[in-house]
Amino acid sequence: MSLPLSGLTVLDLTHVLAGPFCALTLADLGARVIKVERPGSGDDTRAFPPFKDGKSGYFAAINHSKKSIALDLKKEADRAIFDRLLARADVLLENFRPGVLDRLGYGWTDVHAANPALVYGSVSGYGQTGPDARRPAYDMIAQARGGVMSVTGEPGRGPVRAGASVGDIAAGMYLTQGVLAALYDRQRTGLGRRVDVSMLDSQLAILEHALAITTVTGKAPGPTGSRHPSIAPFESFQASDGFFVIAAGNDVLFEKLCLVLDLPVADDPRFATNAARVTNVRLLKRLIEAVTLDQTRAHWVAKLTAAGVPASQIQSLDQVLKDPQIAARNMVVDVLDRNGRAAFKAAGNPIKLSDAEDRTTRAPAPELDGNRGEILRWLDEG
Amino acid sequence: MSLPLSGLTVLDLTHVLAGPFCALTLADLGARVIKVERPGSGDDTRAFPPFKDGKSGYFAAINHSKKSIALDLKKEADRAIFDRLLARADVLLENFRPGVLDRLGYGWTDVHAANPALVYGSVSGYGQTGPDARRPAYDMIAQARGGVMSVTGEPGRGPVRAGASVGDIAAGMYLTQGVLAALYDRQRTGLGRRVDVSMLDSQLAILEHALAITTVTGKAPGPTGSRHPSIAPFESFQASDGFFVIAAGNDVLFEKLCLVLDLPVADDPRFATNAARVTNVRLLKRLIEAVTLDQTRAHWVAKLTAAGVPASQIQSLDQVLKDPQIAARNMVVDVLDRNGRAAFKAAGNPIKLSDAEDRTTRAPAPELDGNRGEILRWLDEG
C-alpha cells in the first residue's frame, strides 16, 4: 500500500485558499508539504473564524498534514535556509502577485537555473501575463468578473455568488492538475516546468454551457434559480416542509414521475417531450407543486427514488456530514492535535485509489514555525 | 516545445460532463483521447442545444480534440476491437453506474489483470462503494445532496444552484488529478491504479468553509446572497445602472474605499474593524449604496481600482468573452471543422505551461464514429 506522491517534497509559499487547496490535495496524495509562512502572523487564515480553543477551524480544514517553517525572504539568514529547501524540493508553489518573487530573486528563471528539475507552480488572480497581471483578486472578484455570478441566482433579482468558493478552488484544482502533469513530464525529461494558473481564466473554463450558449446564440444566459436551463422538470420544488429537487432528465423518467405524483400529464402534448416541457416549464412546476405541497420532502424523495426517478433533499452541511453515503466513503476525517486527539474535522480525500490506505485521521495543522527544528535537521541530514 | 502528456493514449468511455471534462483537460495537456461512443446516438450531449448547422455547440465546447469510434460492448466484433484498444491504452475513463462494466467483463479487476499498467479512472454519482453506489446522479442532485445549494442564494428565499455545473465539474477535476497522480506513480512502479471519484464526495471536498463552520459552531451556514460570510464590505452593491462587487478585505482597503466614496466612516467604531463591519453589515451596505447609486458601475470600478481597492463589474458571458485580460490569456479558442475553418468556440486551456505551445485553435469535435478508419489503422500498425 502506498500513496502515489510519497517521497515528493512540496515547498509551499501560498496563503489563503487557492494555493493551500492545491497543496492539501498533494498532501492527501502522499507528498510532504512544507508550508513557508511569514513570521509573526503566518497564513492569513490562521485568523479566520470559526475558532476552537484559540485555533482556527478554517485553517485546520485546509492546512492539516502540512509542516510549517516561518521565513522572511528579505533576510539573509532565512534566504539561506530557503535556498537549501529549494535545492531539496520537487515542487514550489506560490501565489504572490506576479513580480514579487522575481524581485526577491526567486522568480521562475532564477529558480529554474539553480534547480532545473523543480516544478514551479504559480496561481494568481489574473495570471502572470496580460494587462491585469499585477492586480490582486479574491474569490468574489473572480466569480464576478469571470461570469459565475451572472448565471447564479434568481432571474430578475440581484446577483449572488456560488456559495462554495469556486473562484479560488477552480484555480487551485487547475494548479494541482498542472503540477501533477509537470511531475509526470519531468520523469521523462528530467526538467521541471512553470505552471501558471489564473483565477479569472479558471472561471471561464468551468462555464462550458454558458460559453456555448453565448457564442452560438449571441445572447449571454442569465440566472435560472434552481432550474436547469435546458432540461425539464429539473429543479427544486416545494414540499410541505421545504424544498427538494427532482431531476427527470428524459421522457421515461417523466412518465415515472407522473405515476408517482398521480399527475396524468405524461402524454399531454405540452409535456410529452423535453422541448415541450422546457417551453411550458412554469406551468409544469406549478402542477407538480400542486401535488408535492401535500407531503414532506422525505416522503417524495423516498417515493421517487424507489421508482427510479432521481430526486434529493437539499441538504444543509450538518445533514451532509451525517449522510450515510458520505460516511461510507470516509469523507469526514479527524484532524488530530499534537497529542493525537481529534481536534477538528476536515473533508476526506475524494480521490479514492486502489492500493492506497484511505485514512480516517489527518496529521495536525501546524503551529506557525512549529516544524522548524525537524525541517532544519532534515536539511542537515540531506 | 512539447505538451506533458504527449504520447499517452486515453480510452474514454465517458459521456455527458464529468468524465468528458476530465478527458478534455488530458487532451489539452497533450494526450490523444479516443472517445468510445455507443452506436446510433453516441454521447447524449450531441443532442444538447445550442445548435449551429445541425451540430451541438455544447458537445463541441467539451469534446473538441478527441477522436470517436462507435462500439457496442455487447457485440463480439466490437469487443475484439475494444480489447485491442485496451491493450494499447495508458488510461481508461468510464462513468457507468458501478457494476455495469464489471458485468461486461471490463471491470477494474479484469482489466488490471490483462493490462497491469493501465490507469483505470471511474467517476460516478456516489462512488464505487457505499449504500447508494448504484444510483444515478446528476449535477442538480449532487449540488442538492452535497450541500452547495444550501449555501447559494438569498437568505429567506428558495434554494438556487450554482450556475456553473460544479456538481459534475468538481468530480471531473478530481478524476483528472487522480489519473495524473496515477500516471506519475506508474512510471516508478510499472503498475496502474484504479481511481474512484464520486460527485457527492467532491461537493463536500469543495465546501471547506461550510464544513469548518458546521463542525466548530454546531450550526450549518445558510446562503448569504452575494455577501462573504465573514468579511465586510465584501459583496455586491447597486450603482445607477446595475450591480458591481467590492472586496475590501481589511482596514487599509476600507479606509481607501471610504475616501473614494467620500463616506467619512472609516474611524466610526461601528466600522473600524472587520469584526465590527461584519456586525453592522446591513447598515454599512445601505450607507455605501446611498453613495454608489449616484454613478455607474464603470465609474465606481474604475475609481476603486485606481485607488487599489478590489472591485469588479459582474460580467455576463458576452462581457467575459470580450474581457481584455481573457483575450491576453488566450482563453477563447476556435474549434475548427474538418475543413480547417473556425466553427465553434471553446475555453482555452487555463493550465499555462512553460515550454508548451498555447494554441489558439483546437481540432474538431469528432463525428460519431468519425475516426474509425484512422483508429483501426493505428491498431494494425501497432
From TrEMBL, chains A, B:
This is CoA transferase. PANTHER family: SUCCINATE--HYDROXYMETHYLGLUTARATE COA-TRANSFERASE. GO terms for molecular function: CoA-transferase activity. It comes from Thalassococcus profundi. Keywords: Transferase.
